[in-house]
Amino acid sequence: MVHAQQTASVLRGASEPAVAVRQGVARRILRTAELMTVVIDFSGGPWREPDPHHSHPHEQTTYVASGEILFLAEGSEPERLGPGDLFAVPSNVPHSIQLLSESARLVDTFHPIREDFL
Amino acid sequence: MVHAQQTASVLRGASEPAVAVRQGVARRILRTAELMTVVIDFSGGPWREPDPHHSHPHEQTTYVASGEILFLAEGSEPERLGPGDLFAVPSNVPHSIQLLSESARLVDTFHPIREDFL
Known about the structure:
- The structure is a homodimer.
- By secondary structure, the first copy, chain A, is an all-beta fold.
- Chain A has one domain (16-117): Jelly Rolls, CATH 2.60.120.
- In chain A, 0% of the residues lie in helices and 47% in strands.
- The first copy, chain A, has strands at residues 2-3, 9-11, 19-22, 25-31, 36-42, 59-66, 69-73, 79-81, 86-89, 95-99, 104-111.
- Chain A is globular and about 40 Å long.
- Chains A and B meet through strand 2, strand 5, strand 6, strand 9 and strand 11 of A and strand 2, strand 5, strand 6, strand 9 and strand 11 of B.
């Protein structure tokens, strides 16, 4: 993880090791005091079904950098998203994704910091 | 601009019109209450010199989705960044970029909301 505290910081994708979260899910984290961006690389897809819904008080925006996903959220129709698309999740709205392609990269940003990712 | 208020929202890159900020700079905005993600497409590069430094109280993280840039910030060495790299800017740290390729896409996220972008 890279933490920009007093000065600006850089995270280079090629040199910052990704941390495996579980099989087929690896992440790199860049944070300031109140903002956390998590680059998540998925592999081993497509998935047969979505992840179970989850929720968190943190607000979230996500940029789809590569791959195809189904984005599901309580109160919304499922949406098929690809490169250049984004989604946003207000505080505490249950949501999940299903990986539709072999691999994908999502760029998630949270406020406040996901202390559970530290 | 897409604003996710009570439910999740999606911004599709192909259907959400980009707003021209100035010649060669266009943006699309997705926000929640406290988080704003701005997809910025640059064209007409490379630039002969960096933009003047600017600063804002908002914290910022940026994902380089495509292209090559020079990232400059007070107190740090200039960094040449490409696809998959990121930078983070703490509150009030002066910074700027120089576009090194013909085009580039940056995905900036700010907390709190950039009211000056509304």
